[in-house]
Amino acid sequence: xxxxxxxxxxxxILDHSRHPRHYGSMENASHTAEGYNPLCGDKVTVYxxxxxxxxxxxxxxxxxxxAISQASASxxxxxxxxxxxxxxxxxxxxxxxxxxxxxxxDLPEDDRERLDVMGGISAFPMRVKCATLAWHTYxxxxxxxxxxxxxxxx
Amino acid sequence: xxxxxxxxxxxxxxxxxxxxxxFDAEKARADFAILSRQVxxxxxxxxxxxxxxxxxxxxxxxxxxxxRQEYANVHRGxxxxxxxxxxxxxxxxxxxxxxxxxxxxxxxxxxxGATEAINLVAYSHLMPSIQPGDEIVLSVMEHHxxxxxxxxxxxxxxxVLKWVDVxxxxxxxxxxxxxxxxxxxxxxxxxxMSNVLGTxxxxxxxxxxxxxxxxxxxxxxxxGAVHETVDVQALDxxxxxxxxxxxxxxxxxxxxxxxxxxLKKMRPFNGGGEMIREVSxxxxxxxxxxxxxxxxxPPIIESVGLATALDYLMALDRAAVAAHxxxxxxxAREQVRNFNWLRVIGDAxxxxxxxxxxxxxxxxxxxxxxxxxxxxxxRAGHHCAQVLMERFGVAxxxxxxFALYNNRADVDALVAGLSxxxxxxx
Lengths: 154, 426
Fold this sequence. Notes:
heterodimer, A: about 150 residues, alpha+beta, Sufe protein. Chain: A, globular, B: about 425 residues, alpha/beta, Aspartate Aminotransferase, domain 1, Aspartate Aminotransferase, domain 2, 2 domains, seven-stranded mixed β-sheet, four-stranded antiparallel β-sheet, about 15% strand
């Protein structure tokens, strides 16, 4: 396998896509959003319970799509749980930099280490939107409450 | 083991069917410069001609030479170059007439693609007369370009879309189509060949049944015209839409074939230069078809390119080309027969050279990415056929589409790539 492919489909990513964490719907979500990529038909729904202080108390997702979009969503919910709004924002910005091959050094060290497996996507510009779909959907859930986001438009 | 069977066992696989016909795919490959390039250090294996075909060198060279020697606007100036360019543009129209066997060159309307051709029928033929409750019959395997214009008529004018299903093997249920055509049907809009399933529809039969009930038929010939020989007079079809870039020609040009009787009744769609007879402050008269439907400066260089592509195609033994493409499809089917994790979608008898499939546990985009790194270009997604995706219960498929320049080595590369993807993601 060539190195770029090996970087893209690392075992951690395949594991997340095969066994997504915190997968499923949430009855009592305070915020939800549905993300859709009209190019490939991938869908993801993010459910949140935000605390009064804006902290991510609970977060789950469900959807279907490629290994990258599912792994990215799984890693995202895993990492966002318990974060304050500011921490979550910082994480998202760092993630977006990382997958586009830009400087992500503003990410805290341990976050960067965990997200590093997603860095391989930067060599596949046609696939970056697969990785960002869940994050943009999360952001829309927080900002809009209940909404639908189209990845193509972002 | 006897000596004889030993020799037989060591012989290479029998030659592909194209050796037995008058079409030499290896020779044709040399006509397409792009096929000799590499991607990621591997030979390009282009299996996405259903989305857009590569162009032979003669098309690219002719467009360049025309641009360098004869180019000007058409139907305008009296000068030398304008006359030369107009000659080439109108000659291209006659090439299209020959390619489709239209009764008259005036039945060939140049558009910017098949999408515009179908929209032209929607806006100019149907929109002026369609009433709420009037019906348009179409199949579930249509490309969005043969769905959305009819949705416009549904949304804006209350037309009703009557959907005809396909069988599980992807073949069209002609009896269901016949039954769907009723007294309120104003048009049957049907693909000649599905871009996902490869299904070839029995156009002649469809037209005969529709005409029995006084209903005109439009065929989306984007794929069909590439793989089948089209004779619009023998089909007796009313409208036939094609696009240049799938026919080994340039982008930005397509054609609407329409019977003269229809064109004469159709109101103009785009307004502008070239489509008028006379314009004054309070009155306007229109040019005769086809000029009436060709407002603005047309795709002049592209018309020359498309005519060259069709001349290239018509110089080949097209039945032999079709046999070659069919051989590749059959070979590919044989090679993946043992992949029990692969679900082929579309198995209609006599189908064209398109192989769509879903791989168990592997999303089409992941599959396409892995194949891409092997140099193999396939299409992954919904193929602008979401109604069909819904019919087969899939979000997306991968599609390998075969063209005249593909060979068995291309199929082998595809199959090897599939095995690799299975190894990584399965």
